[in-house]
Structures are given as C-alpha cells and as structure tokens.
UniProtKB/TrEMBL annotation:
This is BD-FAE-like domain-containing protein. Residues 40-145 form the BD-FAE-like domain. The lineage of its organism: Bacteria, Bacillati, Bacillota, Clostridia, Peptostreptococcales. It comes from Maledivibacter halophilus. SUPFAM superfamilies: alpha/beta-Hydrolases. Gene3D superfamilies: alpha/beta hydrolase (3.40.50.1820).
Length: 274
C-alpha cells in the first residue's frame, strides 16, 4: 500500500458512541459534467425519524489531483466526519468536487460547491433536511472555495461556517504562479476579499488554525482574522499550537479532540439543535 492509500484510510482521531452505526444514503448524483458524474452521500442521524426535518452540515474537501478527488468522499477522513456529525443529531453531506488542476480550473471547483449546496436546498424535503438550517464545514484547500462561495452568494443562506487549516486569502500568493493565474482569479476565491460591509449579515464563523502548518497558509488565516477584528465581527478561533495540517487525522491529542468536540457544539448551537 502506497503513502496516498495510507492517508486516504485515516479516520479522525475523535469518536463518539455508535457513530459507525449511522445509516448512509450513498452515491446520489448531484451534477453531471462532461468528464464525470459528481456524487454525494447523506449521513442520517441516529434514531432517524422520517417525519422530521433535520439541520444539515455540508463538508467541503480539499484540492488535489483528479484521480484522488474522484472518490474522496469515501476516504476515512470524510466518512468518519460524516458519521460524527450524524451521531451528533445533524445530517451530514459529503460530496466530490472536481480538481482545480493547480488553480487553472478554480471556477469548476467553485461551481461544484455551489451546485452541491443548491442541490441540498432544492431537494431538502426529500432528504429530510431543514433547508433554513444548513452549515458548511470546509477543510484544507476546500476552505478558500467553500467560504468564498458562501460569502459571495448570500442567497445560499448558509447559517454557519467552519474553516479548518485552509487558505482564507489567496491574493498574496500571486508571485508563485504563472501569468495565467491572474490576481482577479485569486481574488475571486479569497474569502478576505469579501469582508466588505458584511457585519450585519455575516454567518457564524469557527476557525481552526494549525500552529505547525505551512507559514503561507497561516499568514492567510492571520490576515483574515486581523480584518475580522478590524470590522469588529464575532467569530470563534481555536489555535492548535502543536497541530499539523490535517491535525484531525494526524495528531491524536487532547487538544485535537477538544477542537473537534467544540466544532460539533458550535454546529449544533448555530443550527438550532438543543
């Protein structure tokens, strides 16, 4: 088994009772592209009642080569996150989006995320989802896309956002790329660029920062945080001083478990679960 296969098998280090027992509706096609069918899974809460509508959390995975992302929702990380959310009384939605091919197809990723959210909203009745109580949890390279889509299109009506160890600004990376990757394209998927006149309509926000992450990623997070403070916007910040990128699967520690537990409590609170 190669290193990539080993990583894809890793589950989050925090678990709750019976989370592996939740029911899952797998491989729902939410979008057809010229290249592939994009699919999602729906994780149902324990003791699911078909007569009820549940709040939902949509999980946005990171970027990478197309062959890895094709079935990334089936990786240990996203399966276990879906199980944890469902065992905590919420519906969890995991889905595959396309690769940006090293930022050359960024809009494909943004479009897929927006289409997945709209699919959940439009099919909420059939999926037993309360369409007015939907949150989004983005991780790693999924953060700039997921958070930007929500901040750009407020009609999606996402109640709360969770950002785990991901870029919250891409504009300062322009010098790393060719001329094909324009400043405007990076700005379109830089959450920092949307922090203008948003105070009264900003979704509840939870940011998890990995202290041992790449300095360029943490610089982007810090720039975003400084702007939030300048605008006097409420947000929850948790720094994992000894955390690596992907600490939820790599760092089995008290601090990791604390942050994941607090994330679930944040989602339950802002999505109306007692």
């Amino acid at each position: 088994m190669n290193e990539i296969e080993e990583i894809l098998k890793k589950r989050i280090v925090y678990e709750v009772n019976n989370m592996k027992s939740v029911d899952v509706n797998r491989n729902i096609v939410y979008k057809n592209t010229n290249d592939m069918k994009l699919k999602m899974d729906i994780y149902m809460p324990l003791e699911f009642d078909n007569n009820l509508k549940y709040p939902a959390v949509i999980l946005v995975h990171g970027d990478g080569p197309a062959e890895i992302l094709e079935n990334i929702k089936d990786s240990g990380q996203y399966v276990s996150l879906g199980q944890l959310i469902a065992a905590s009384g919420l519906i969890a939605v995991t889905f595959n989006h396309r690769s940006s091919y090293r930022l050359t197809r960024m809009r494909d990723v943004g479009d897929d995320i927006e289409d997945a959210i709209e699919y959940v909203k439009e099919n909420a009745e059939r999926l037993n989802i309360n369409k007015d109580m939907v949150g989004l949890w983005a991780l790693s390279a999924g953060v700039p896309y997921g958070v930007s889509v929500v901040l750009k299109n407020r009609q999606l009506n996402i109640k709360c956002l969770v950002s785990y160890y991901g870029y919250l600004d891409l504009q300062h990376r322009k010098e790393e790329f060719s001329e094909d990757i324009t400043y405007e394209k990076l700005k379109e998927f830089s959450p920092l660029a949307y922090l203008i006149n948003v105070k009264n309509e900003f979704p509840s926000l939870f940011i998890a920062r990995a202290g041992l992450d790449h300095p360029v990623i943490n610089r982007s997070i810090d720039n975003f945080i400084y702007k939030l403070l300048e605008l006097n916007i409420d947000f929850d910040l948790y720094n994992h001083s000894n955390g690596e990128h992907g600490f939820d699967i790599y760092n089995d520690s008290i601090r990791t478990c604390e942050i994941i537990k607090l994330t679930i409590e944040f989602l339950r609170k802002h999505l109306g679960v007692a």
